[in-house]
Design goal:
By secondary structure, the chain is mainly α. It has a single domain (66-556), classed as Amino acid/polyamine transporter I, CATH 1.20.1740. It is built from 24 helices and 4 strands. It has helices spanning 13-18, 59-63, 75-86, 88-100, 106-131, 137-145, 151-188, 196-214, 218-249, 257-262, 272-280, 282-287, 293-296, 320-346, 351-355, 362-407, 413-419, 430-443, 450-476, 492-514, 529-546, 561-568, 570-573, 575-578; strands spanning 25-27, 33-41, 47-52, 579-580. Strands 1-2-3-4 form a 4-stranded antiparallel sheet. It is globular. GO terms for molecular function: transmembrane transporter activity. It is a multi-pass membrane protein.
């Protein structure tokens, strides 16, 4: 039960209470019974017997990690991070062409995907994040749940996939922002021609600016998230009010319920049913993505001890990241569905007239028809600002994940140790932030190839779901009786069902992401997501077996003995039960 290891691992408290004979019980100053769970090797080379109390403020240190980031995010702030990255209206503008190619009835696809697919994934992820309150919770859970022989390679694969997805997601957000900015220029100057070079220039400028904002201190970053939430909410309310009024003023007939909920189109050479599946179910997955961002920010979250008198769904302060995930998915699922209906109601009866638009986003054409040039420029400019705020949130979450992975030496030590440094003035991982920015600038070069640019979106979703599916699948199979439970847990039966639905949905959506948008595609129409995703993963695993297996050994504690005692507190730790000194290996 307490075998020495380089890594921290937990056993559920309930299970521990049933196996008291195999544990060491210690009574803390708060009179809560605490149980020895396992061991990790400290930075000094000593084995530390990990205990786990009800106080979630100690959870990170009890995982074996030093608290370096400032805790300043409430559960509402973490909701704001995810909600900002999703940036509902800017994201809908980016995917509306694809959605409309299946007809107005694609709004049903949005609703189904949001609540029958994405929400179960979010709930399953919330359980993982609650059990492992670390920025690297996704890969930590994969390492913990995997068979002993495959722990390191399994965790490394999840690291690579999650990093690819997060980086591609940040790229796609800034890419959409550059498109919105250029759409504004197109409206103001109809003869303006958008080129790949211009798009990349705008993209590079705003991603560098976004990384500067993302490097601010925790207090400033928190305010940015709050501003982003209110700003995106204001955008939605503005369009909900202005667009119907403008449509009526321009005497454009509103589409009726039969059109809104029954219209199906086919702008591809797939069958109408195949086209609907590809283009009605996928847009929500592209928009409601990166909802793992609250987990990557969890080391900056403000926790409160679990209130056992309240139901788990009524105690968000005990699991801020979990509630950030669930609230953001639910809000974007419902509000996005209503916004889709609003746009389809006001677009006019001719789908062809909208789809034939010369604008980068066909939503721009809807605004032009109903609101005129001045209002369109104003709203599109606000959408561009909203998209930029999305990018700041995305690059912040990505940099926290990058920092956590470097802390565990997923990269070569000389590089990882330099990047896994927190700035003492701002309490933020600035080096990881600019490392993330560099990766995003390199990935952004895909803009110069149309299918490559589209792959940024699909890689962000496919890689993301592949990374999440691994620990969730292991949780309901190999680790079904031993997986860790945090404050947020729905119970054995409901948790198993939710995870089963989540894994099934993710498998289905990964396949959809790999399918080309046209049947029998040529070289220019091919979907290269499978090439990019599995190609990068294959290169990374090759590097692991040739080189990185020497350095990457799963979770790696950066706490010294003294730092652990200072964090946990001698009176709570039961010092005599804490240390078992061994020779350094």
């Amino acid at each position: 039960m307490t075998n020495s290891s380089n890594n921290s691992s937990f056993v559920d408290e309930k299970e521990q209470s049933q196996l008291k004979v195999a544990t060491t019980a210690v009574t803390g100053a708060d009179n809560h019974l605490q149980y020895q769970l396992s061991t990790f090797k400290s930075a000094n080379g000593h084995n530390i017997n990990v205990i786990r109390s009800q106080d979630r403020q100690l959870a990170l240190e009890q995982l074996g990690y030093k608290q370096e980031l400032k805790r300043s995010y409430s559960y509402f702030d973490l909701f704001g991070v995810a909600f900002s990255i999703m940036g509902l209206l800017p994201s809908i503008c980016a995917i509306f062409t694809q959605s409309t190619s299946a007809g107005a009835s694609s709004s049903w696809g949005w609703l189904f995907t949001s609540f029958c697919g994405i929400l179960p994934v979010g709930i399953a992820l919330a359980e993982l994040g609650s059990a492992f309150p670390s920025a690297s919770a996704v890969y930590l859970s994969a390492w913990k749940f995997a068979p002993e022989k495959y722990k390191d390679v399994c965790a490394y694969s999840v690291c690579v996939l999650d990093s690819i997805a997060l980086s591609a997601g940040a790229c796609s957000v800034f890419f959409s922002a550059s498109g919105q900015i250029l759409s504004c220029v197109q409206v103001a100057k109809p003869d303006f021609v958008v080129t790949h070079g211009k798009k990349y220039g705008v993209y590079a400028a705003i991603i560098i600016l976004g990384s500067v904002f993302g490097s601010f201190s925790g207090g400033v970053s928190t305010r940015i998230q709050q501003i982003s939430v209110y700003f995106n909410t204001f955008l939605l309310i503005l369009v909900f009010i202005a667009l119907p009024i403008g449509t009526k003023h321009k005497n454009i007939p509103f589409n009726d319920g039969k059109f809104l909920f029954g219209n199906a189109e086919n702008y591809s050479n797939w069958s109408i049913g195949g086209n609907w599946i590809l283009n009605a179910l996928v847009p929500a997955a592209w928009t409601i993505s990166a909802f793992d961002s609250p987990i990557h920010m969890s080391e900056e979250a403000i926790y409160a001890p679990r209130n056992m008198k309240k139901h788990v769904l009524l105690d968000p302060k005990a699991s801020p990241a979990a509630f950030g995930i669930i609230l953001s998915i639910s809000a974007c699922g419902l509000l996005g569905w209503l916004m889709m209906i609003c746009l389809y109601a006001c677009m006019g009866p001719s789908v062809d007239a909208i789809m034939d638009s010369s604008y980068t986003s066909i939503v721009t054409q809807i605004f032009m028809n109903s609101l005129g040039q001045k209002w369109t420029i104003a709203i599109m400019s606000l959408i561009a600002i909203g998209c930029f705020l999305m990018g700041i949130s995305a690059i912040m979450a990505t940099s926290r994940n990058f920092y956590a992975l470097c802390r565990d030496r997923v990269l070569p030590p000389f590089m990882a140790d330099w990047l896994a440094v927190v700035d003492k003035k701002t309490n933020t991982p600035i080096r990881a932030m600019y490392g993330t920015c560099t990766v995003s600038l390199l990935l952004g070069l895909l803009i110069f190839q149309d299918q490559g640019a589209n792959s940024l979106f699909t890689i962000a979703v496919a890689g993301f779901y592949m990374a999440l599916a691994i620990p969730m699948f292991l949780k309901i199979t190999y680790a079904r009786k031993t997986f860790d439970k945090g404050p947020f847990y729905l119970g054995d039966k409901l948790s198993f069902f939710v995870n089963l639905v989540a894994v099934g949905y993710q498998a289905f959506m990964i396949v959809l992401m790999m399918i080309p948008s046209v049947n029998h595609p040529d070289k220019g129409e091919m979907n290269y997501t499978v090439v990019f995703t599995f190609g990068i993963l294959a290169l990374a695993l090759s590097g692991y077996y040739m080189f990185m297996h020497k350095y990457f050994k799963g979770p790696r504690s950066n706490l010294t003995d003294e730092e652990y005692l200072e964090a946990v507190g001698e009176e709570n730790a039961g010092i005599d039960a804490i240390f078992s000194v061994e020779d350094k290996k």
